[in-house]
Structure prediction request, 250 residues.
Amino acid sequence: MNVSSEVIKMYAKQLRLPTIERYETVLRSAMDNNWGYEEFLAMLLKTELDQQQENRKQRRIKAAKFPQIKTLDSLDFSWIKNVDRSLVYELATGRFIDEKRPLIAFGNPGTGKTHMALGIAYEACCRGYKTRFYTAAELITDLGEASQQGSLSRLNKKLMSYDLLIIDELSYITFGRSSAELLFQALSNRHELGSVLITTNLPFSQWTELFGDSSLTAALVDRLAHKAIILNMNGNSYRLRDRMQLEENT
Prediction:
């Protein structure tokens, strides 16, 4: 049976196997290495599978809406005195996500909290977890708009669909009562049902300054602190260090 390359590409396209449409590259390797039919077929299917997995990973990264891509390999652990590198890389395996535990990074500005959160979340995407990155202000805005438009239930359901919800910079804005209640509900929904990663400049004892209600704050802290992994990232600002080094070199 003589089969033209056009027929093979047509079948691959109809089966939605785009990598197999470009099978000639694998065919050349098969001819160069004297592969048998089964070896050629196995490598062709593996190539398609690898590409599909890469495409899914890229879709997860895009859906996470990271402000920028940061990896743990580029995080300066020598500047982070209170957090062990091995612990952060253990967190990057996603075990805490499987266990549906909160991860909370406390620390003053410029100590790498956001970089670490992005690095862990990026690795989670690579490992197949669905993630979503928000700043606290962005999440409050989305929740408020959804509440006004009557779509809050839909948004909360979507938030619950993520394996890991990242809330960055829970520090810089003070919430009104309605906003505090919306955020409280969104986080409470995930209690023991989904993992959350929060970065903040403020210790739990000062969260009343954010939420404005001691009872609501106490209830939220109680839920988050339960089984939480706490990272103390207080230290000197590496952004300030980089700025000082730049000024010294100019």
